[in-house]
Amino acid sequence: MKYTILYEDTEVIVCVKPVGVASQNEKGLQPALTDLLKQHLAKQSGKKGDYYLGVIHRLDKPVGGVMVYAKTKEAASFLSKQILSNQIKKHYYAVLLGTPINFADVLIDYLFHDKKNNCSIISEASNPKAKKAELSYQVIEQISLNQEKLEDKLTLVDILLKTGRHHQIRVQFSHLGCPVYGDLKYHSITESMPVWIQEKNSGIALYSYCLEFMHPKTKKIMQFSYVPSDGIWKLFPALSNKKES
């Protein structure tokens, strides 16, 4: 399974998680990204053993993008505190089915995590089990799959995730009436859906393209980005231009 390491030192590993690979160990035959990175660490050192790798945040299995892992417990603690205080900035690209009413907006909802059914549900703020979910977005570009059907218009948005709730982006945009393209769990389907979205493990049109955090040792602000260029992302010239720049 291919993955890309963008940066590595004694404290952290920043890498690009492939679509269809779990962020950390799960029950199944396919290795998770943590397994692959531990194999990388073992190969680097030339010694066998169970290497420490701290999971700081997660991406859903059908979502690809930039992630950071800690190589020491001290680094994991430092980065985890940044996650809890929303200091780590996470930017996503998403392709939405349809057109949002506002081309730039802030979405604030309260989400209840239904663990039994592995989904999140929009709830009232008064629900003690619901957590605040906030993000901002901006429309970048739009294309049409079918000129006769307005609902088949695809909208590329740039998202700044301000909280990290379970399935947050997917749920909030579905609630807005513009679900993430290809996300069957939250009701995104169209007859014009290309083959690469219909295929098993092809992922959904959501990608974590940029991550910014304070380095646990140097205390410098570090930013890493990776622009997706295959599958549905090839349809948008705006992304091709970013890839070339």
Give your account of this protein's structure.
- With 245 residues, this protein is of the alpha+beta class.
- Helices cover 19% and strands 33% of the residues.
- The protein has five helices and eleven strands, in the order E-E-H-E-E-H-E-E-E-E-E-H-H-E-E-H.
- It has helices at residues 33-45, 73-84, 168-176, 195-198, 237-244; strands at residues 4-8, 12-17, 54-55, 64-70, 89-97, 104-114, 119-123, 131-144, 153-161, 206-214, 221-225.
- Strands 1, 2, 3, 4, 5, 6, 7, 8, 9, 10 and 11 form an eleven-stranded mixed sheet that branches.
- The longest helix has 13 residues, at 33-45.
- It is globular.
- It starts with a strand and ends with a helix.
Q: Rough shape? A: globular
Uncertain residue ranges: 195-201
The major pleated sheet works out as: 11 strands, mixed
Percent of residues in helices: 10-25%
Question: Quick gist of this model?
Answer:
This protein has 245 residues and is an alpha+beta fold.
Features:
245 residues; alpha+beta; 11-stranded mixed β-sheet; 19% helix
Helix and strand topology:
Layout: E1 4-8, E2 12-17, H1 33-45, E3 54-55, E4 64-70, H2 73-84, E5 89-97, E6 104-114, E7 119-123, E8 131-144, E9 153-161, H3 168-176, H4 195-198, E10 206-214, E11 221-225, H5 237-244
Parallel strand pairs: 4-10
Antiparallel strand pairs: 1-2, 2-4, 3-4, 5-9, 5-10, 6-7, 6-8, 8-9, 10-11
